[in-house]
Amino acid sequence: MSYTQLFDNMKRKINEYTNKPLTVKIIDNILDTFHDENIQKKVISHPLEGREYILNFIKENIKDNKELNEKINKESAFIDLLMLEMNKVIVGQKHMTERLLIGLLSSGHILLEGLPGLAKTLAINTLAQTLDADFSRIQFTPDLLPADVIGTQIYSPKNESFSVKKGPIFANFILADEINRAPAKVQSALLEAMQERQITIGDKSFKLDEPFLVLATQNPVEQEGTYPLPEAQVDRFMLKVVIDYPKKEEEKLIIRNNLAKSFPKANQILKSKNILSARELVKEVYMDEKIEQYIVDIVFATRFPENYGLSKFKDLISFGASPRASISLAIASKAYAFIQRRGYVIPEDIRSICFDVLRHRIGLSYEAEAENISTEDIITEILNTVEIP
Asked: What is the pLDDT of residues 286-327, one digit of tens each?
């Protein structure tokens, strides 16, 4: 029996054993085992003994994988309940709802962009209603000051001392509504909170309670009275989700909901500890080294397109995605796999969330704008070019 035939026989046997196809993790572990010279000798010199050894090895891997999948199936039951509560209020917009859950599970801040009236603010408010956590809404306006967001020091003549008055940023979930209506100095007030999970007021730093999540909305930059977000600010958002108009049938349902005697309301179903425990489980989702390499190749293709046969983009990209893009692709794909009730990441997970992770991290040159080329066009071409593992 040849090396390949032995592996095929093992694959068939294990498929019979589990009634499920082998996962990437199991197959790679099998291949790594075959690279061991001692095992190869055992298989060649004693086919029956080697066959039994590898069979036991694969069974152990499948047992571990099945336990993780069962654990994820059990712990992710709240996803369906959460989606059910969200769908009571939000009609359609499945993509947006799913991305909000990814942000919740991966502790990643989210930027929603769309025209007025597309339920951006309503979606974030609805998500907050389903959670037993502190929620703050900050309406960004042109006259807003950084102290209005993070807080300030107040002098007390009676005590002849300064005391700290904390701002609305001290909550678990922050809705930064129309974030690009305020100037850059106010937008930048969120930088420390979003990255370091702390706020500095005067000479004191205050740790923010977990879970902490910034969910921001913005109007397209073409709208009047908007200020573009600084690159450092935009990069701190794990996902930028672009929202489109609802479909005809969905809009009919929206009309009915708004004309009903009482507008639907979401119920509170989750506590903060549930979110934190789910985040820990998301970290356990398996990511193969080949998937990691796929992520790195996609990100590097935005920086050095000529190395990936995309020389036409060299003069169209002013700067590529930062290392935060690689981190965000990895953790967001794990969260997406968790939502799909899987204990491992597949290439389709990466491709599914790639646009939301990268669209705000690629800088376009004047040439690209002149040729009407968008970041979505570049991402699509990269995904079509980079080899899928």
From this structure: 888 888 999 999 999 999 989 888 888 888 888 889 999 999
Considering the entire predicted model, what is its pTM? 0.78
DSSP 344: B
Q: Tell me the chain's radius of gyration from C-alpha atoms.
A: 25
Question: How far from the centroid of its chain's Cα atoms is residue 191's Cα?
Answer: 19
DSSP of 28-54: HHHHHHHTSHHHHHHHHH-HHHHHHHH
166: β partners? 151
Does an H or E element contain 155, and which?
strand 151-156
Considering the four listed CATH numbers 1.20.1560.10, 1.10.8.80, 3.40.720.10, 1.20.85.10, the one that applies to the domain covering 285-385 is: 1.10.8.80
Length of the chain counted residue by residue: 389
The CATH classification number of 90-272 equals 3.40.50.300
Question: Tokens 């796929």, residue?
Answer: 294
Q: Is 377 helix (H, G, I), strand (E, B) or coil?
A: helix
